[in-house]
Amino acid sequence: MIDTGSTGFMLVCAMLVLLMTPGLAFFYGGLSRRKNVVNTMVMVFGVLGIVGVVWVVCGWSFAYGGDGSLPFFGGFDQIGCLSAVNDMVAEAEGTPDAFAVLSGQGALANDPELAAGYPAIIDIVFQMAFAMITCAIITGAVAGRMKFGAVCAFVAVWVVVVYAPLAHMVWGGDGSLIGDMIGALDFAGGDVVHISSGLTGLILCLMLGRRKGFAVLSYRPHNVPFVALGAALLWFGWFGFNAGSEFAADGVAGLALLNTVAASAAGVLSWMLTERITVGKCTLVGAATGLVAGLVVITPAAGFVEPWAAIVMGLIVSPIVYWAISQAKRRLGYDDALDAFGCHCVGGIVGGILTGLFCVPGLSWTEHGGLLYTGDWSLLGAQVLGILVTIAFVAIADVVLGLIIKACFAGSLRVSAEDEAAGLDVAVHGESAYPAYLGLD
C-alpha cells in the first residue's frame, strides 16, 4: 500500500532538489564576469527547459525502464511516462497499489517488501531534478565562450545518451553494470551527477580552448553576494538531494541529512583554514566553494557513513579541491571557467574513494563494508573500478558527442572573437544584467 508519510517526504525532497538548479544559476552568475552574467544564468535556465521535456519523453524510460536485465540501458516501456499514469488510474480503480519505480537506491530498492511505497510518478520528477542539476553543472566550465545553441544541443543529446545510461548502470538495480556487477556504492550521485558533469565540463573546455586573456587577465567573481545566495540555495536543496535518496522517511534519511550538514560544515572550515594558510585571508567565495565541496564529497556516502566520518570527509576534500582549482588548472593549462571539474569531478572522486574506507557494513547495499571496519579491500576496489568505468564511459561519449555537435555548428562550438570580447550578454542575448553600467538604460 501507499505510505502517505514517505509520499509526502519524497514530494518535499523533489521540490528541494528542483530548487538547486536555479540556485546554481545564482552561484555561477556571481562567479562569472559582469559582461557574461546573463549568458551564464540563461544556460542554466535553458537546461531546466530542455531536461524537463526530454526526461518526460524518454530520459526516465532509458534510465529506469525495462526489466533490469540490461546492464547499460533501461528500456522503451516507459516512454512518455505513460505507465506511471496508467498505474495511477489502476490505483484509482481499486486494482493493486502502484509503488515507486525504484532506481536502485536506498531502503526501498534493497527490500521493497519491508519498505513503504509511494507513487512512481514522484520518483520521475525526483530523478528529473537530478538530471537537471547534473546538466547545469556542465555549463560552468564553458561560460563566456560557447555558442548558446551548441550548449542547448549538447545538453539535449547528453542527457539521453550519457546521463540516462550512466544512471541505469549505477542505480538500475539487479543487472546494472556498476551498481550490481561491480558492486560500487553511490548513495546520491557521486558518479552519476558529480564525476559525469565535472568531467564533461573539462572535455568541453578542452575542445573549446581557453578564453581570451586566460592566465594573463584576472577573472574575478563580479558579484560575491550572488555567489553566497547561490551556495545557500544549493545547501538547502542538497538536504532533499541526499536525504531523499533513501526513498523513505526513516532513520537512514535522517543519517544522510545529518551527514550532509556535517560534511558541508567541515568543508567550509577546512577551506577557510586552507585559504588562511596559503594566502593569509579567508574569503566569502572560498567559504561558499568549501561548502559545495563538502556537499559533493558526502553525496556518494551520505547514507553509508557515521557522522564523524562525514566530518573527516569534509576536512579532507577542501584542500584537495582548493589545489585542483588554484594549482592544477594553472599548471595544466585547461580553462575550466567556473571550476566545474575541480569542484565536482575531483570532489566526487574523493567522495567515492572515501566511501570505500568509511562505509558502515550494516548500511552497505552490498555484502562488503568499508576497509576501516572490515579490513576487506573488496568495497574500496569496487569503488575505484566504478569510478574508472564512469570516467571511461563519459569521456568517450563526450568526445564523440562534442565532435558531432561541433560539426553541426559549422565546425565550431565557440562564439566569434568579437562577441567574446564584447560579452555574450548583449552580443548573444541582447540584454544586460546591469543596463546602467553599460549605458543602455
From TrEMBL:
- What family does this chain come from, according to its entry? Belongs to the ammonia transporter channel (TC 1.A.11.2) family.
Q: Which Gene3D superfamilies match?
A: Ammonium transporter AmtB like domains (1.10.3430.10)
The Ammonium transporter AmtB-like domain covers 9-434
UniProt name for this protein = Ammonium transporter
Q: Where are the transmembrane segments?
A: 6-29, 41-63, 120-143, 150-172, 192-209, 221-241, 253-272, 284-302, 308-325, 337-364, 384-405
| Annotated membrane topology | Multi-pass membrane protein
Q: Does the keyword 4Fe-4S apply?
A: no
Keywords in alphabetical order, please: Ammonia transport, Membrane, Transmembrane, Transmembrane helix, Transport
Task: Say if the entry is tagged with keyword Transmembrane.
Answer: yes
Domain of life, per the record?
Bacteria
| Compartments where located | Cell membrane; Membrane
State a single Gene Ontology molecular function: ammonium channel activity
GO CC annotations, alphabetized:
plasma membrane
Q: Which segment of the chain is annotated as a signal peptide?
A: none
